[in-house]
Amino acid sequence: MTSHRTTATAEAERLRTYRPDIQGLRAVAIMMVVSMHCGILDIHGGVDVSFVLSGFLIGGQLFAEIDRTGKISLTKFWARRFRRLTPPMALVIVGTAILAWLYGSPLRFRTYMEDGLSASLSFLNWRLVENGTDYFANDGSQTPYQHFWSLGIEEQFYLAAPIVLFVMVWLSRKIFRNRALVALFLMAVIAGSFYLGWSKTSENQPLAYFSTQTRIWEITCGVLLALAASPVSRLNRGVAAVISWLGLGTVLVTAMLISSTTPLPGYAVAGPVLGTVMVIAGGCANPRFGVERLLDNPVLDFVGNVSYGWYLTHWPLLVLWPSITDRDFTFEERMRVVVLSFLVAVLLHYAVERKFKKNTSLLARPWKGVFTGGFTTAGTAGAMVLATLIPLNLATSSSSSTVATGYTGSASVEKSAAVKELSATAQSALEKTPKDLATRGCIDNFDVKKFVMRDQCVAGDPKGSKTLVLMGDSHAWQWNDVYDVIGRELGVRVVTMAKGGCSPQTYRITNPQLAREYTECDSWRQSAFAELRKIHPDVVVIADRARGEANRAGAETSFKVLKETGAQLVYMTDTPEPGQNIPDCLATHIDSIALCNRKQWQALEYTRIRAMEQDVAKKYGADIIDTTPVFCTGDVCPAVIGDRIVYFDNSHITSSYSKTLKPFLKPALKDILDKA
After folding, report:
1. If both were cysteines, with which of 81, 88, 442, 604 could 457 make a disulfide (CB 3.0 to 4.6 Å apart)?
2. How far is CA 28 from its chain centroid?
3. pLDDT for 178-202, tens place per residue?
4. In this structure, are residues 250 and 82 in contact, taking their beta carbons and an 8 Å threshold?
5. DSSP string across 491-506
6. Class in CATH terms, 410-675
7. pLDDT tens, 265-311?
8. Greatest CA separation found in the chain?
9. Which residues of 392-406 are buried (b: 16+ CB within 10 A; e: fewer)?
10. How many Cβ atoms sit within 10 Å of the Cβ of residue 668?
11. Which pTM was predicted?
């Protein structure tokens, strides 16, 4: 009995209620997240560390309650979660909505509020999956609520975990009279979820990245460790210390090896997850010289306390800061976001989190905590619904222009470069501009591996005596509507062969949305070349986005294949890159639209690549159509020409503007078709 008491005392000493190492690791995780998001350090995996910590802490609480009482009080459990999480989250969601209204793009406000609604109801991760969101996109498409995807997964776990774990513990005791079934169940969840995340990363990256079923394995690793905490605590303390130090090293090294081009989540996130498991497992034995000696300090303890608030506040400020300050988003500006969001998090912690966490009335009556959380959630969701009904905050202009003009010659571009205020005609079109894209022709999605001729790929005059093929990526597809008009007027059949992000030139492309080599482009390109040989076009127009990966060998290979079709080749130079989302910029700078223009030397990036492609095209007898004069003049590329907004996003031209270029394109194409 003495031996048993001694063992029990030693185990109790090791299995502590408060773990300074976990608190320190929580601080490390949030600093990793903020550093990565704000571009301070290229270090990933902070969210993965947090997932494991949540699983361990929540699993430990639930298993301890089952051991102590034989059941789980759902009211008390959910009340604790609501008390801590809901009030700060509600304040940030509503506060972000106010900032978005005051400073964000009016054109995005309703989308933001729909995201805010999803965030308040804890299913934003599924909305991001549905929208095919690229987490690492840097094109202004992010919303200030995007970071709620991970909180949504955790909150879904909090709702299901007490019920699922209690049922599994009960079944395991009935069948095995121990918890073997629970362990087997948790291991099965880990294996299945990890495999699903790994396999889906190459097929559907948004699903793999944001969905609950592909991420739950990370939280479950923590739960499994909580189940095994007692035997793990009996590790030799020297061994445990080594494991904990190796764990922290694994977290940091693997986190720095991951980059924005690493296929995520895939297998890469296993590094931070494994490292976190090692840190927690080593700490279970409470070794004297473990990593806790580094993680247990006042600074990390304080950061850990405010980590939830810091996670909530940093991302909305990061997304909205350029609009709030109206300055270039430099490193110094990003550091200001880091500091300001931390200060707001500290205020949020002391003024809100601690108040609700220590409220005696809520502690004494758990049902009040559940009611408070439910009421706060419903109120926040209701506020987001009402916000979507508010008329857009678009300013009006004193301009009296009523005739919608676009490109009418080089003088129109020069004149537009000097315009400071958005005309009333352009303002009236602004709300619809994000949807002002080509409607004719066709373009294949990223996952399509083979070009298939279909009715919607044929525009112009379907019965025309000559066939013109417009081939390339989305920067070819953007010209479809004006080619359709010209084709009908000249009696030419226009066939579109376009695939998103896929150059007709043969070189290796890494697709940022897929976060891997774009193999679908290679197979699609070959099938498109094969189709060209079948239809024997009279003219092939090549247009694609200028890319840094392009090389002369790839251009030579493709132009040689195209030349062998016998068609007259045409190379259209790429359109200028505006460098920002133009409708958003115009909506927030109606009286100073020059801020949305871009210098020509910036807009025409990859000048050497562009020159090389033109040189290769000329070598194979291609006619060159230089599009630069219809977009730029002198050293400026205006965002609005005449009354037409040039771009519908941060890269592609509007259908409305492309149609005004008919007088520029039609004579050149007619001459080419006549000699074809």
Report:
1. 442
2. 23
3. 889 999 999 999 999 999 999 998 8
4. no
5. TEEEEEEEBTT--SS-
6. alpha beta
7. 989 999 999 999 999 999 999 999 999 999 999 999 999 999 999 99
8. 104
9. eebeebebeeeeeeb
10. 16
11. 0.85
